[in-house]
Specification:
Structural class: mainly alpha
Strand content: under 5%
Order of helices and strands: HHHHHH
Largest sheet: none
Shape: elongated
Radius of gyration: 25 Å
């Protein structure tokens, strides 16, 4: 959203569009978690302060930063949703590796092991017994 070289109505439209996208992102991703309209109020205050800035390039830079933040917030939430949809977890991955190793062992083969997860878990458990470590 660049303001330089834009007519006043086009600049106003870019400002409003960016404000709407940022407010939607805040309403979807920030407000439900905090339960407070504080961030929404902050965004409105920042956008209203842009009206008082005379330098069009500074306003354009702030609008671009706001637009990029909205895109980032939406992308992060989309990524988290995809991870949850696919049910990706370390425990599930380890179970699949154990199953593959068991199948390979059943037919007389061994799986190459670049990292010994069981040894790591055992070390973490013994290390964590005194301080509440990360054991399974």
């Amino acid at each position: 959203a660049r303001l330089r070289g834009m007519s006043a109505p086009a600049a106003n439209g870019a400002w409003r569009g960016t404000l709407r996208r940022v407010l939607r992102a805040v309403d979807r991703h920030v407000t439900p978690h905090s339960g407070s309209p504080m961030w929404r109020d902050h965004v409105l205050t920042e956008f209203r302060s842009c009206e008082k800035i005379a330098a069009a390039d500074r306003v354009a830079a702030r609008l671009k930063a706001a637009e990029e933040w909205a895109v980032l917030a939406n992308a992060v939430q989309h990524h988290k949703a995809m991870i949850m949809d696919y049910g990706h977890s370390l425990d599930k991955e380890r179970e699949q590796l154990k199953k593959a190793a068991s199948t390979a062992h059943y037919v007389g083969l061994t799986m190459p092991d670049a990292y010994d997860h069981d040894a790591h878990d055992a070390r973490a458990k013994t290390k964590g017994d005194g301080g509440g470590g990360e054991g399974k």
